[in-house]
Write a structure and sequence with these properties.
By secondary structure, the protein is of the alpha+beta class. The chain has helices at about 10, 45-65, 70-75, 85-95; strands spanning about 1-5, 15, 20-25, 30-35, 100-105, 115-120, 125-135, 140-145, 145-150, 155-160, 170-175, 180-189. It has 4 helices and 12 strands. A hairpin with a 5-residue loop joins strand 9 (about 145-150) and strand 10.
Length: about 190
Amino acid sequence: MAHVQKNRIPAAFTGTLGNEIVFREWDGKTIVARTPKKRKGDPTQPQTQIQEKFLLASRYAKAVLSGQVTGMKDAYAGVLRPRQNIYSRALEDFMSPPIVKSIDKLNYKGVVGDKITIRAFDDFRITGVLVQITAANGTLLEQGNAQVQSNGLDYTYTATLANSVLPGSKIKAIATDVPGNEGTLEVTL
């Protein structure tokens, strides 16, 4: 891809020249690129899944722009990077699920009041972190929302039930972002 600056002739072009190159205007600059080629054959299953996700992301971004997603247009406008618009920021947020990086289980001994710390982050904002504690046999013992800490990355869950059989028990954290994407992590005690 080439960028053309301070040249009036190519700067006046937009569109396709033959079937070889495309002229585009972006941020006051003329960009010259190869003409995109049509796909041969049907898309694979993973490609179809990505296309469907991109379609949903596009609909979400359009809803943000039209104001159907209350308050998000201004929120995304506040975190734009250079040459990015609100539509592309909303699209990026939809396509990027949150990540649960770690679950600190050291302070959890199965006693009411024990603290579990979860570290989770997102490219924009996490709306909540749900914590589930299950017994070794898969029975859900308890679940609840973790509270965000002052650093904005750590979330703390306080145990509400006693768990007398720790070995084999599991702690699962599910982080959710604004578009509703989920990121999960599970650890075994």
